[in-house]
Amino acid sequence: MEGQVAFLSSGTWSLLGVEVDEPILTEEARLAQFTNEGGVGGHIRFLQNNGLWILQRLMSEWKMCGEEQNYDTILPQAAEAEIDTIIPVDDAAFMNPENMETALLNYCRAHSLKVPQNKAETVKCVLQSLAFKYREAVEQLNRCLPSPIHRLNIIGGGSQNKLLNQLTRYPCLCRTYRSYCYGQHSDSGNGQRRNIQSPGNQRNCKPQRYTASILP
């Protein structure tokens, strides 16, 4: 089958990319903020970095103010929320604000976006924004590679976040290839039970769950 196999190490910091034989040093790669990192066996990991830190900050803040949310409860509620707001998850406003929820709401107001009215809508906004960023990264990858991506292997704690996987899938679904989720972690991201496999070792790791293709 033609095409590349990409990986997404999904967690607090989510690394999306491919393994290549040589660094990709094009202007397209630079503008898209991809990095070339040395990998196993002399390969290069061509990566872009995002992650679930916004959601994790929100959950931590809600807990501190006595409004703790359980992922098993809030994610199904977020799945039902009717909000289509997309925020740029890599914007400086969300890097390390004093209060993440305030920063998110203020950003929406300042940019004339629909403002989340409750926690479920806030979570939906964050996850669909991250999914949009993943889709954008895949499109950028395809412009940098000699052949398009045909499969995505998802590893890490974020691979257990069913809503994030679904939100990533549906806007991008154009083919019927597969993506696989590896490891045993919490929905939050990088949990304590770590079983993350490097891209080169995925063939030896049994997938914990199958999800349909999320790639164009």
- Main pleated sheet: 7 strands, mixed
Overall shape: elongated
Strand order of the largest sheet: 3-4-2-1-5-6-7
Straight-line N-to-C gap? 15 Å
The chain-level mean pLDDT equals 81
User: Roughly how many Å is the radius of gyration?
Assistant: 17 Å
- List SSEs in N-to-C order: EEHEEHHHHEHEE
* SS strand fraction: 15-25%
Helix content: 25-40%
- Looking at how many chains there are and whether they match, the oligomeric state comes to single chain
Structural class: alpha/beta
* Unreliable stretches covering 5 or more consecutive residues: 170-216
Give the count of helical stretches: 6
Task: Work out the number of β strands.
Answer: 7
Summarize the topology:
Elements: E1 4-9, E2 14-20, H1 27-31, E3 35-38, E4 44-50, H2 53-64, H3 71-80, H4 100-110, H5 119-144, E5 149-155, H6 162-169, E6 178-181, E7 209-212
Parallel strand pairs: 1-5, 5-6
Antiparallel strand pairs: 1-2, 2-4, 3-4, 6-7
Helix pairs in contact: 3-5, 5-6
